[in-house]
Amino acid sequence: MKSAQVPESDAFPTRRYDLVKEFTIALAVTVLLSAGLAGLFSSPNVPPTTLASWSTAAPNDFTATAVAELAGTSTSAQYGPPYNHVPGAGQKIGPLGLQRAAGVRIPVDPAEDFVLRPLRQAPEQPEVTAALAQWNAASADQQQSWSSAYADALNKAPDGDPAKAAPGDYGPVPVLTARLLTLARAGSLDGQLLSPGRFYQTAYTKPMLFLADGLYLSDRATEQHLTGAQWGMMNETGNYPGQAWLWLSTFWYQIDPFKSSKNADAEIWAIMAVLSLALILVPFIPGIRSVPRWTRVHRLVWRDYYRTRR
Amino acid sequence: MTAAPTTGAFAAPVDLNHPGHYLHWGVVQISVANLVVMCLMVTLFVAALLLPFPRGRRDDE
Amino acid sequence: MTSSWTGAVRRYALRRLPSEKLIPETQPVYMASWIYVFGVLTVSALVVVLVSGGVLALMGPGWWHVSGVGRYVNSVHLWSVQLFMAVMVIHLWGKFFMAAWRGRRVLTWMTGAVAFLVSLATAFTGYLVQQNFDSQWISGQAKDALNATGIGAWFNVFDFGQMLMWHVLLLPLAIGLLSVWHILLVRVRGIVPPIGATAPGDGR
Questions:
Q1: Mean pLDDT of B27-51
Q2: Could you tell me if residue C9 is left (phi over 0), alpha (psi between -120 and 50 degrees) or otherwise beta?
Q3: Which domain of life is it from (chain A) (predicted)?
Q4: Before A82, cis peptide (omega within 30)?
Q5: How far apart are CA A164 and CA B6, in angstroms?
Q6: Partner-chain residue, chosen from C37, C44, C159, that has the shortest CB–CB distance to A203
Q7: In this structure, how many other beta carbons lie within 10 angstroms of the beta carbon of residue A159?
Q8: For chain C, how are helix, strand and coil distributed in percent, rounded to 5?
Q9: Structural domain of residue B41, as residue ranges?
Q10: What are chain B's partners, defined as 3 or more CB pairs within 8 angstroms?
């Protein structure tokens, strides 16, 4: 398929073709279809989860998540770049660790940002002030052992209900998380997790990371078939068509070795980058660029031409 | 968990906001809505190849 | 007459793309298939996407959550995007099976492919700025992919302001420029002749 063998298009006989008329008709068709489908089906709009709605609908999940933030065991606390420094964290493409190379550029300290600072900034109750003082005076090991013990106790309690947790040495942790729950249910935590000290806000990094650490958000997503294991990337809430064009990206997450790889994101998006480049470079890829000749779909497209040529 | 409904004059006659229908086929899991879109695309593609295109007047013969 | 840069640009443009090539009233006889209309359908769907998006921009990102008219315009935007993606992909299938990159048309294919990829990014950022559960969940999932490749350190899907800028300014601008470039290339080179075609009177 060398270009030298392809004749110039203006060497061929022509016939009348009204491009402007074609465009006008096409525009009318797309306008009518879009307006009609919009009128018939509207659009999906499932309301967002707020920290208030989460802590109200699933208070025990909220408390367990807050304890995990203090214990440093939550997803955010273990995340690594670009949010925090965690030894060994960060996905790799083979030996290539781009996540670590990018560094910590959006710093998030989950225990401090999601739990301790909001408590300090809220109107302080004496017992919360005392609990914060006790927490701050303790060693990191002590903090860790209190919060881990409380996390275990909540895990064993019926429904994870703090009221039913077995007594134990949890230090100030139960007071801190109970107060945080009160703040969250009142709606004040939603505002406090945005960048402190600024009036105008556009970054929802902290409240979103905190929300995503709990189970409530992913439970809602599972209901709507949106999780990664459900081909969720191409799905939409309700019965609406979603981003069907992402079928290939979401497909890789369903199969081994990616399904069970801790570097799945990095590996899959490296593959997608290569495939995207391949799409752009199709005309240069031997084999692929010859598929059109072999498949003979073109015989249908140009059947008039091939018939009259004979 | 429900979607905010459209109300008044702009209420949609067909409400697609109730729980989605999904098909499972081995590892494949697909929403009926996406499947309908994909089938329509393939149908359009095949129809475009097969249906006769109106012939315009030959210009220079 | 002294030569000016302006004159040089005009002469170059007119030589590459004389008006009868830019908006011709005829097409080669071999252009006789419904598959050809999916290119112009893609352009017209893009126009509906841009206009409905423009109306949403007029009233701001929160409008469609509180207004029936806003909700309807948002719906037009959604469905025109679904149409745009569908007809663009059919156009892509068609051009692939026609090997439409032949005859010095490689750049036409490449600008089209890049426009397709940029459209995916635009749709993605659109889902992020809906301000609903979709946006929350999609950003929560997408951050892992973007962070894993290092991009997330600069492209923060949780930053509504940043995503809105990408969605309503940078990416549409890119799609617009790529589309214009793509269409001009089609007009400069003309419609690709059938596979195996020889020019009439060129010794069959």
A1: 96
A2: alpha
A3: Bacteria
A4: yes
A5: 42
A6: C159
A7: 11
A8: 75, 0, 25
A9: 20-49
A10: A, C
**Residues pairing with B25 in the sheet:** B28
Number of domains into which chain B is organized: 1
First to last CA, chain B: 67
- Tally of CB atoms within 10 A around C56: 20
Distance of residue C194 Cα from the nearest chain A Cα, in angstroms: 6
Neighbours of A103 (CB within 10 A): 11
Mind listing the pLDDT tens digit for each residue in C86-95?
999 999 999 9
Give the dihedral sign, CA A207/A211/A212/A217: negative
Partner residues linked to A16 by β-bridges: C26
Cα A135 vs. chain centroid, distance in angstroms?
33
Q: Residue C88 corresponds to which tokens in the numbers above?
A: 């663009």
Domain boundaries, given as residue ranges, for chain A: 51-223
- Judged by DSSP in three states, B11 sits in coil
Express each pLDDT in A99-123 by its tens digit: 999 999 999 999 999 999 999 988 7
How much is the pLDDT for A310?
67
- Residue A58, token pair as written in the block: 């699933």
Our CA dihedral for A44, A47, A48, A50, rounded to 10 degrees, sits at 180
- CA angle in degrees (0–180, nearest 5) for A102-A105-A107: 135
CA dihedral C56, C60, C63, C64 (to 10 degrees): 40
On whether residue B35 sits in a domain, the answer given is yes
pLDDT at C201 over 90: no
What residues have CB less than 8 Å from A261, skipping those under 6 apart? Answer: A267
What tokens does A10 get? 């203006």
For B1-61, strand residue ranges (E) read 22-25, 28-31
Question: Residues 3 to 62 of A: which have CB under 8 A from any C CB?
Answer: 3, 6-20, 22-23, 26-27, 29-31, 33-35, 37-39, 41-49
CB-CB contact of C105 with C185 (8 Å): yes
pLDDT in tens, A176-214: 999 999 999 999 999 899 877 788 889 999 999 999 999
Of all helices (H) and strands (E), which one includes residue C28? Answer: strand C26-28
Q: Which residue of A has its CA nearest to B58?
A: A15
Question: Half-sphere exposure of residue A157, counting CA atoms within 13 Å on the CB side?
Answer: 20
Three-class SS of residue A241? strand
pLDDT tens digits, one per residue of A235-262: 999 999 999 999 999 999 999 899 999 9
Chain C residues with CB-CB distance to A26 below 8 A: 37, 40-41, 43-44
Q: What is the pLDDT of residue B3?
A: 53
Would you say B59 and A16 are in contact if contact means Cβ atoms under 8 Å apart? yes
Indicate whether B10 belongs to any domain. Answer: no
Contact C141, C148 (CB under 8 A): no
Name the phi and psi angles at A82, rounded to 5: -90, 10
What's the ipTM? 0.94
B57 burial class (0-12, 13-18, 19+ CB within 10 angstroms)? exposed
Question: Which tokens is A83 given?
Answer: 């949010």
